[in-house]
Amino acid sequence: MNTRLDSRRALVCGASRGIGRAVALALAESGAEVLAVARDAAALASLLDELARGASQTHQAIPLDLSDGGALSQRMQAIAEDSPVHIVINNTGGPPAGLAIDAGPEQFEAAFAQHVLAAQRIIQVLRPGMQDAGYGRVINIISTSVKEPIPGLGVSNTVRGAMASWSKTLARELGPLAITVNNVLPGFTATERLDYIFQGRAEKSGQPIELIRKQALSLVPAGRFAEPGEIASVVAFLASPAASYVNGINLPVDGGRTGSL
Ligand SMILES: NC(=O)c1ccc[n+]([C@@H]2O[C@H](COP(=O)([O-])OP(=O)(O)OC[C@H]3O[C@@H](n4cnc5c(N)ncnc54)[C@H](OP(=O)(O)O)[C@@H]3O)[C@@H](O)[C@H]2O)c1
Q1: Does ligand 1 come within 6 angstroms of the Cβ of 65?
Q2: Contact residues for 247 (Cβ-Cβ < 8 A; gap 6+)
Q3: Is there a domain that residue 2 lies in?
Q4: In testing the pocket of ligand 1, which one of 88, 92, 145, 199 has its CB within 8 Å of the most ligand atoms?
Q5: Which of 213, 221, 214, 229 lies closest to 254 in space, CA to CA?
Q6: Which domain covers residue 81, as residue numbers?
Q7: CB 152 within 8 A of CB 201
Q8: pLDDT tens profile 159-213
Q9: pTM for this structure?
Q10: Is residue 201 part of a domain?
Q11: What is the pLDDT averaged over residues 12-18?
């Protein structure tokens, strides 16, 4: 089985911490050259240090705000002119928690820009390079909420649904070009985002955060939260030649938590 990514270039968004960082490490370990995007330049520099240890490939840090559409398109153009990118990992911070009914239109607009529009800008620029190479992988890190919307994450649920539909549509459009488009749906994963969600639930309910954690754990057949690397290894598989016939799917990596089929 070929899971190697030697001589492949991978753009990894949201690579400064959490799941994105773990994905950058996993793709590099499989042989890819990583272009790591996030706003925190210092965190990216530290990732690059770690990537450089014992590696033969050259990696790049790209400090960038994915919400800044103009800057994003410009940067993608420069990257594409340099050399084709074969793998794109669309990943960014989740929208703030809260009920959908309480969210202003500007919150939906901001989330749509940071998630769907950023992904659209990226693929529009990078698709010709994938097409010419005869190899493309677009992998979106979204959420199990595309199968079962999560209470208290109104804007997130809405934007993830849009992202999943965008992805399924593109999978059909780009499939004939040997470009696959898939979604990975993480379950509870031990990152800053999970801490933020639990903190919010604790404040809202007045319950201690440890109780909130216990309640969440009771929903997971695996009986524990995921490590970011467990999400990343699935992403690395989908990015590889071994996953060439997997296209247009939503793949939960959630320890069995999601109840729907
Ligand atoms: N952790 C979980 O349990 C879980 C479960 C289901 C779904 N998810 C989703 O999976 C994704 C990743 O989760 P995570 O837990 O790794 O999140 P995280 O720890 O909050 O990390 C988010 C990453 O996105 C980057 N980012 C945020 N806003 C950005 C922007 N405007 N421009 C560029 N980069 C930006 C952050 O870097 P900078 O701050 O440096 O920009 C960071 O690297 C999120 O969408 C999250 O909602 C997570």
Answers
A1: yes
A2: 171, 175, 180, 181, 182
A3: no
A4: 92
A5: 221
A6: 9-188+227-253
A7: yes
A8: 999 999 999 999 999 999 999 999 999 999 999 999 999 999 999 999 999 999 9
A9: 0.98
A10: no
A11: 98
